[in-house]
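Problem: given the chain below (281 residues), write out its structure.
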Amino acid sequence: MLGSRLRNTLQTLALLTGMAMVLGALGWILGGWGGVAWALFMVLATLLLVPRLPGDLLARLMGAIPLGAYAAPELHELLVRLTERAGLDQPPRLYLLPGASLQAMSFGSRDAPAMAVTEGLLFALDRRELAAVLAHELAHLRNNDLGVMLLAAVVGRITALLALLGQIMLLLALPAMALGVADIPWFALLLLAFAPWVSDLMQLGLARTREYDADHQAALLTGDPEGLARALIRLERAQRGWWEAWFTPLRHWEPPSWLRTHPPTAERVRRLLELAESGRL
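Solution.
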């Protein structure tokens, strides 16, 4: 268990460091150490200026309605017990999203948490599977994954902005390059062309790593990795639909795993079952 947590933590640090290095390289090309400082300043300023919307407001903006303890007492009991195990100060405010889709999502931070579940999810999952899904979302809140992904998104957008600025500067310098007055900076050209793509791929990898870590912590909170594995399989089948579930050769094309925000379900289930078989919970 410790090895899995350590691996996920190291992957998160490595991906964030890689995104910062790409951004720093762009800043260096555009303005030396001054450019690096300006790039870091832009990231910090953006993070400070981005409004920290409370989870309740975000849930309401999505059309969710409050789900009080009187309406779903067992669900609230589950959430309170898992919150205590997670060591959080307060349970998230619970909301209901109308619709048949099977989804659960968390909003806000540890100080102002909120969680929304769809009607379809409540009808499709049993108590064991539902507890695992709630624990997964609580793990996101405890780890401040929303804040981590916000940082990654800010770094990615500023990387794209600096790359665009550099490309404009190179276009303006094309006449001088054509006359031989200035050398063609091939390395800078390659970095400006591919930096936004590399940063986006790292951001996707970071999202997948945080999902793996949330799965692992959810299994620790419930002591039931198989429950989360069952829930993931059920969610996967619901997303594919019954026709595709029966006739797998007719499935739609799916993007490769490195282009997804979530890891493949089969890999997530495999890791959870390995954790269950290890007997270390």
